[in-house]
Structures are given as structure tokens and as C-alpha cells.
Amino acid sequence: MELGGEAADEAFAALEAERAAASAVTRVAPGLATARGIHADRVPTLAYTRRAAELVGRTDAAVSSAVATLSAASIDRTGSVAVRARNVRSTADVSTAAAERELGSVLVDRGFSVDLDDPDHELRACFADDTCLLGWTVAERDTSFGSRAPTDRPFFQPGSMAPRDARAYVNLAAGPALTTTTAAGPGLRNTTAAGPIPPDTTVLDPMCGTGGLLIEAGLVGARAVGSDAQWKMARGTTENLAYYLPETRWDVVRGDATDLPFTDDAADAVVFDAPYGRQSKIAGHELADLVGGALAEAARVAPSCVLVGDRDWSTAASDAGWTVEARFERRVHGSLVRHVHVLVRE
User: Among 80, 97, 207, 313, which is disulfide-ready with 115 (CB 3.0 to 4.6 Å)?
Assistant: First the structure.
């Protein structure tokens, strides 16, 4: 798997992939990871994974070693091919042009024709630090969602989260770890989830604001449910969801995040961006009481949660009955660091 983002995003990207599309994701070199099993059809919905490939082999970061590995590999495919070599973040001392040329020669010698525009198969040669991974591309991220901006929405408010990050947080909340099951072809395995994956998941945002998280939840196939204490935000989210999800079931209500109008276990996952504490009171609550109450309600209605905030809310999460499975600090700009808490119910 080729991970996206900066070096500081790698652990975050690996966990997103593991919870939403793969099992046993292990980082092996800068920007690269391996997985034991994968849902190839889920890869396009990931935010921080560029693509996934069926692993042919792993070797050191030398063209000669990559050529030797490919020459020794069993290949059960025919047709046209393109070789794409990449020096991840320029961390390897390698010529990608030479890699493409020499690996392509191996494949031509084994009966492939070369088609750089529309090949039947694409061989990836990813060099990073002292490692090279060779693999056949099986799925790529849908980059089109990254071209959307919060300002494109019918209803917009300053401070709205970028779609790419919103997508990642939804995947972290909604996607459980996967368990490998049956073989799906050479080097691939189908996997089955220990719990629901997004097409079967209800995702709730109890502080939905302009609906950015819910838009991404709906676009990856989950049922989006939102609540906000302000009528203005609830109406704005309704407008945005109607625009982006015209054929998808979703629901938005006005409600207090500390007293949600939903039954126990009404959702599979909760994801929310807590207010950033410049105000002493928000929606009639002190900030700490608001977040603590929202976390307690989230634990009542769902077994999984991702909380994003401008500070570490781990103690409040534990007090509300959550186990902090992971926490990330992600710098947005000089004055804002987002703390991302990945929570599972105790």
C-alpha cells in the first residue's frame, strides 16, 4: 500500500487503511505498508492511501535487485503492461527511469507488450529508503473528492473541515479491523469484517455544523445521521446533504449533543469535531461539560467514536466509558493542532 500525506501522517494513514479497507497493516518503509488482506473496492474511498497493489516481492532499493526479484517471480497474467517506478519522498538512491526500463524489459521477455496509456496491467516499483516493493496495481484512491472545497457547499461557514480530513475521520470511526478469510487470486485475499463496514454502517455526528463529516460518510456509502443544537446548522446540513447525497438516505435533527434524541445503540459509529474553546459557554454548556456529555451520549448510542478537538480529551473520554485506541496530533496551521481520538466502547 502506498500511503499519502506527509511523513508525520503515516501512522494515521495506516490506521485509516486498517480500519476501513485492510487487515494487519504494517509500515515497512517511508510511505509504504503491507497488509495481510484487503477490500480492493474500499481503497478508492480512503483519504490517505494512494493505491494498493498485489505484492510481487520485496527487496533492497537497487534496480538490479528489483530486476532479479521480478525475474524470479511467478506471473500468471498476460497482455499489455506499463511499469511505473516511484522514489518515495526522494528517500532512495535510485533512477526511476532505469527501473522502468529494466523491469519493462523483463516483462517484454516474458511475453508482455508495452502500453503506457491504457495497459491491461500496471507494475508498481516503489523505492523508499533501503526498500523496494514490487506489485501489480489493484486499486487506487478516488482523488476527485479532494477537488471539492468547503466553500463549494450551498451552506458554508468559516472554519469548515477539508473533505480529505473529514473522509479520513469517518473511515477511522466507521471501519473496524478486518479478518482475513479466503484467497481471492494470486497474492490476494478476500476479507470479512468483524463488524459493519461503511456500506452497512450508520454514522452519527452529534455536532454536525455544516455537515462536512456527514457528506463524506454518505459518499463512502454509510447512512449519515446528524444533530446540532442550532437550527441554523441543522438546516444548513440538510441543504448540503440534499446537494451531495440526492439519492442517499440520511437524517438531520435539531438536538443537544449531551441529550441525544436517539435510542441506545442507534448508530454504529459517532464522529464529531468538538468546538474549539474560545467561548466560555457553547449552546448553554461550559466546553468541558459539553464535550464530556457528548462523549457519554456517544457511548450510549454507538460502540465506536472519533473525536476531533483542539486539545487532548483522553481523560474525558475515559470518564465517559471509552478506551482510547489511538490519538494523533495533526497540525492544520501555525495556531491550530487537531487532536484526533480514536475510541472504542469499554
Answer: 80
- Going by CATH, does the domain composed of 150-166+194-345 fall within 3.40.50.740? no
- What pLDDT was estimated at residue 188? 41
Q: Is the pTM of this model over 0.85?
A: yes
What distance in Å separates the CA atoms of residue 295 and residue 206, rounded to the nearest whole number? 10
Sequence spans of domains, the chain = 2-38+48-140, 150-166+194-345
The type of residue at 278 is: R
pLDDT of 184: 41
pLDDT digits (tens, 9 = 90+) for 253-279: 999 999 999 999 999 999 999 998 655
Furthest CA-CA distance within the chain: 72
Instruction: Assign 3-class secondary structure to the chain.
Output: CEECCCHHHHHHHHHHHHHHCEECCEEEECCEEECCEECHHHHHHCCCEEEEEEEEEEEECCHHHHHHHHHHCCCCCCCEEEEEEEEHHHCCCCCHHHHHHHHHHHHHHCCCEECCCCCCEEEEEEEECCEEEEEEEEEECCHHHHHCCHHHCCCCCCCCCCHHHHHHHHHHHHCCCEEEEEEEECCEEEEEECCCCHHHCEEEECCCCCCHHHHHHHHCCCEEEEEECCHHHHHHHHHHHHHHCCCCCEEEEECECCECCCCCCCCCEEEEECCCCCCCEECCEEHHHHHHHHHHHHHHHCCEEEEEECCCCHHHHHHCCEEEEEEEEEEEECCEEEEEEEEEEC
Integer Cα distance of 59 and 3 in angstroms: 19
Average pLDDT for the chain: 90
Three cell numbers written together for 297 = 451520549
The tens digit of pLDDT for each residue in 222-259 reads: 999 999 999 999 999 999 999 999 999 999 999 999 99
Q: Which three cell numbers stand for residue 207?
A: 455536532
Task: With beta carbons less than 8 A apart as the criterion, state whether 229 and 254 touch.
Answer: yes
Same topology, domains 2-38+48-140 and 150-166+194-345? Answer is no
- What is the fold of 2-38+48-140? VC0802-like (3.30.2130)
